[in-house]
Every structure is written in structure tokens, then in C-alpha cells.
Amino acid sequence: MAQNHTRKKILIIDEELSFVDFITAFLDQNQMSVISADDGLTGLKLARSERPDLILLAVMLPEIDGLHVCRLLKFDQKYQDIPIILITDQGASLDTNLLTEIRGDLQISKPIEPESFLESIRQITETKKW
Questions:
Q1: Residue 12 CB coordination number (10 Å)
Q2: Is the pTM of this model over 0.90?
Q3: Calpha distance 8→1 (Å, rounded)
Q4: pLDDT over 70 for what percent of the chain?
Q5: Which of the listed CATH numbers 3.30.930.10, 2.40.50.140, 3.40.50.2300, 3.30.420.40 matches domain 8-127?
Q6: Where does residue 91 fall: left (phi above 0), alpha (psi -120 to 50 degrees), or beta otherwise?
């Protein structure tokens, strides 16, 4: 008999539409609901209104960059427990000290390999008692 699991809500904040479409389809296949924003300001508003279970956050964004969005959420007691995975462009990476400073949970780089990405989500959700 199938168990009745509530679908986890994932917020993707990234301006690259093809990436958002790809990740949305992939997460949907893995029983997760997706909402998305293509700029930092809209993403910040969605994070606050929707309270997702996890945020996938591009570092480079229009309006407000991903580092600032992460910092605003992680230093607010209402939202600090939402896990945030920061997404960098291919070949780029965040300094470990910076990631710690803004309280990001994990960093991954594009292009994303689906199975290792899913494993990263599982690691974070286990750590956060999802």
C-alpha cells in the first residue's frame, strides 16, 4: 500500500529559464512541488510568503543577488531554518568562508548532474530533519 507523503515545496530562484524548466521537471518526477522566480527580489518575496522546504538559489541574479537573498533569509529568525543551496555558474565557486558567513547550506555548480543533485538534496534534508 502506498504511503501518503506530502510533496515537499522547492523554491528555485534563477533567471536561466531552461535550467528552471529542467530542474522543475526533474523535481516533479521525484515527487516535489516547485515554485520559481527569475530575480532575487521576487524570489525573496516568494520565500517569505510560501515558506518553501528548500531553496535553490542562483548567486548571479537581477535586482538582488543570491548572496544578499541568502543573507536576508538566514539572518531572519522566521526563515533561518529553510535550507538554501547556492548555485554557481560553471567553473565558479564560492569561498568556503563566504558560504559560512552567509549561512548557505550547500553550494553546487552548473551544469547539474541530476542524480548527484538529488543526493545533495537528500543530504541537506536529512541534516535539517526534513
A1: 26
A2: no
A3: 21
A4: 93
A5: 3.40.50.2300
A6: left
